[in-house]
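Dear colleague,

Following up on yesterday's call, I've attached the two folding results inline so they're easy to grep. Please treat them as preliminary; we haven't cross-checked anything against experimental data yet. The first protein's sequence and structure tokens come first.
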Amino acid sequence: MPNSCPRRSPATPVPVLAGLTVIICLFSSVSPVIGWRPWPNQQPTNNTTDLLFGGSKKYEGSSEFVHLRYHMGPVLTANITVHTIWYGTWQKSQKRIIRGFLNSISAVDVKAPSVAGWWKTVQLYTDQTGANISRTVVLGEEKNDRFYSHGKSLTRLSIQSVIKSAVTARTKPLPVNPKSGLYLLLTSDDVYMQDFCGQVCGFHYFTFPSIVGYTLPYAWVGNSAKLCPGICAYPFAVPVYMPGFKPMKSPNSDVGVDGMISVIAHEIAELATNPLVNAWYAGQDPCFPTEIADLCEGIYGTGGGGSYTGQLLDGHDGATYNMNGVGRRFLVQWVWNPVLNYCSGPNALDQ
């Protein structure tokens, strides 16, 4: 992160609280809001029993330990448009899986438990006027960066330059939509991101006007298939320090991309409820917020916690999933329910 505060653009002013957050975070040299790791702060261990039972399997009921608060910042109440940047080499089949998930968020007439049912929990969050997160999430424009314009090794800051290139391209630039647009940068399995695999599988933040020219909420998610599938595509791949554990079969026959789906869901849910890092989160420090998906990392079904995913569904083909989408199945982590005060999802057994 730069050590000076970015200048604001008159066309896209940063709210006061967001500006203060930027100043605080920049001067403390803090990275963007990181998201998703199978077991946060869990160091490799030879004791697989600790991995199985170290965390309560009823973590989703531990409401007394969670103090999620609203910090008066904006949330995405207008119809949400996801603009995707495909960075690197992507197969058409891989793009179809991810588009299928994004199209499923607002889909109707999908068999329960559905992705749209999962999004209903995100919709429960409101802004200071009482307006809820939008029900509608649609695919926007897409940009292909198949020639790795910024190289195969990216940093958190260089991501913003990739986004700038996409919105200022001479041909077919991505539209600039600060109020209801989300910019999703997806890197292929041969691209390394700063802290990828060791600390993060995805993160979100917002662009700086001094770099991009606008304040745009964005998320990055990488394909871990070659670098660390056991970390970022769990449970479809298993870490080397968990010998004897058998990976589950991915529902769309692509371990890396099926693993990405849950991380993408994680980041979109947090972008909707905390786009400028000054809305919904737990903890006292806006530079290190614990957000609605962070609270439920690794929980995909009733009883989930630690490395135990919870109760899931098995297809006739042996694939594991917990939600139905438009013509596809997905495994998506739960998010924190502000009404129930615990993690919940459409496949919960106690619904």
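Below is the second protein, in the same order (sequence, then structure):
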Amino acid sequence: MDLPVMPPVKPMLAKAVKKIPPGMQYEAKWDGFRAIVHRDGPELVIGSRTGKPLTRYFPELVGALRERLPERCVVDGEIVVAHDGRLDFDRLSERIHPAGSRVRMLAETTPARFVAFDLLALGDEALLDTPLAGRRAALERMLDGVTAPVHLAPATRDADLAARWFERYEGAGLDGVVAKPLDLPYRPDARLMYKIKHERTADVVVAGYRLHRSGPVVGSLLLGLHDDRGTLQHVGVCAAFTAKRRAELVGELEPLRMDPSDGHPWAAWAREEAHAEARLPGAPSRWSGGKDPAWVALRPERVCEVGYDHMEGDRFRHTAQFKRWRPDRTPESCGYGQLGEPVSYDLADVLG
């Protein structure tokens, strides 16, 4: 491969802001795997956000990208999987599997799509120093009339339309809006764009914690919500505490420590088969690597308020943010019913 921009390339990133800034280009924030595609004739590499290749996990996209992209180009975008008219990150995550036979089967049953939103090189020309407006115009010309499973990401300079996208597109599984300055060059691994994500709060039960890698202090709190049957389901974690606060939490939570076998609702967490019947902490995951799944069980008596952006099925999609303790709430009152449900919106209407 001999391109003006060679792999690996770490993508340009966005920093979080509260409001949609004026005077920029706006796009939907896709909930998938960020990917930079390098194509040089028959050679094609799909690089991940970390720079490691994703090519082997998406064989159906390799063929589609060869057919739909120019002979020599470097394109930034997102790999997504759709199900029932919305993005499905869980099904997308299943594609990262060591068994080739499993990958090929999933490529047929849950095929992926590639949504392109930036152009880093075309032919012999590197476009990293070209302002965004120029890169976008070149991308639109390059992908004019492109067909699925390759898509051109919708973009607008109308801030009011971007605000409507922010409200509507969540129902299709997207998680916000990205704003990009029109004169912005492409700078790998730099946070020069802006992301606006949905912010919500929920009252959750704290039923345990994991230790931090730095020592015997709290790393993250394990959070639960009651389902319609009254069963406490593990829905995610909240973290991002200061070092001082991590140490303080150990002492604050010490009176609640218990042996899981003494009636904790997640006592069966260590049995792999139990994870098929309920959502428990410590579930086997290809993302876990060598991380210790063990955790400290607490009597599920304390409630805290957390901030979150959106749900993926019956769990928080991302790490939640601790807001405050809620001594006025009972654990039994913390159920799924308090969570807002976005209005359904078909992904096909987003992609046109």
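For the second protein, one point worth flagging: The mean pLDDT is 91.

Best wishes,
A.L.
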